[in-house]
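Comment on the following before class.
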Amino acid sequence: MIGRPTGGPGAAPGRRRTGPGLRRNGRLIAQREYLDRVRTRTFVAATGVLVVVAIGLALAPIGLRYLDRGTVIRVGIVAAEDGVAERALALLDSYLNTPPEGTDPTRWERPFLLSRAPDEGTGRAAVADGRLNVLLVIRRASDGGLAFTLHTPDTAASPLSQRLGFGAVGVGILDWQSRLPADPGVGQFHPPSFDVVSSSSATEAGRPIDPQELASRSVLATVLIVLIFVTLTIYGMWVATSVAAEKSTRVMELLISAARPRELLVGKVIGVGGAGLTQYVAIVVPAALVVVFQDRIASVVLGPSPLAGEAPLEGLTLPILGAFLLFFVLGFVLYALLYAAAGSLVSRQEDVQQLALPLSLISMASYIAAVIGIGSIGSTLVVILSFVPFSSPFVMLARIMLGRVEPWEIALSVAILAGSSLLILRIAARIYATGVVLYGQRPSVLAFLRAARTAIG
């Protein structure tokens, strides 16, 4: 049972409350709101559908690999000496096209096609227009050994670059052995140099980013931004319609006589937010497990990958999930307080949408700015928006996903967002305390703005 407010009958309805009353009444109201949400069939059905969708998205890269499994990786080789070119072609073909253990050789499709390019210029042009995936240029170094240069759209950290680097060592050993009988001056073997020239223009911490990794991060950033936008809008409307429903059924009159408006406001936001977090966990945990075991699932479904260590999905890590949770919670608190204040100014549930529209437009504009900003994540406007409270849950998350943010920037953005939420709490509590006892007024954006101006004043 909700405890009665202290302070006497003449106490101001919106006055700040301290002591156990706020904690007790707020907890009871939050518990009621939480149970009312999670016990509904709509909540359970929507959560089940979203879980299926999230698992489907997590499995999507495996589907793409299934469609792409017949793709042949074309490797061009340039070498001035015919003997070096022949040894490189033979050894690399044997190394790259060896069937994995347990695979039927008669049914194994060779994933790599190696060929000799006429010269470096022609080969690099073939890489640029997609006729070759990579070009391996072999030269004779000043010490008599071999020097390798790999031209690739990927980076030195990509699985293909690493495998070709390992294969280059084998080619260097064969070349060293071939020169031993004819050249007594050949000294001890030294591993050949292997340089990677990446055509990727994206960089992080001074190093190029693998285009596949960058694309994966961009897709994941978009998905998480969409998820925050949808959840903030849905859960914010839950808060607003709950307040309006209590006013239209006169339940608010009983609640306001047993608890202060601040207690009702805080309890409602916490209860609906808890329901949202429950849905978030139910959706994210199974999807995260699928991502963690994605390689194993792909191996069972598709068989071994021709590129050992190939990761079908990059960018989804525990720190990213933690950042998503943090900005989801802070963003929800900020928007939910405003939605609750807007809901307190209407007397019918049908009128909620009219007052909630400006808040939806603000969140939509922030969402669009974040999605568009993914393509120019380092621009001044994107950096500024990552610190603006209403847009930071979207834009800062995008910056974190693409690795273009310093730790102090995250801390500053979180501090500004949390401080703004505390300020909005004071304003929303005053609007809520006045709005819940008013009936019959016409809902309008101007009425909401007047109430906000009065609360600030």
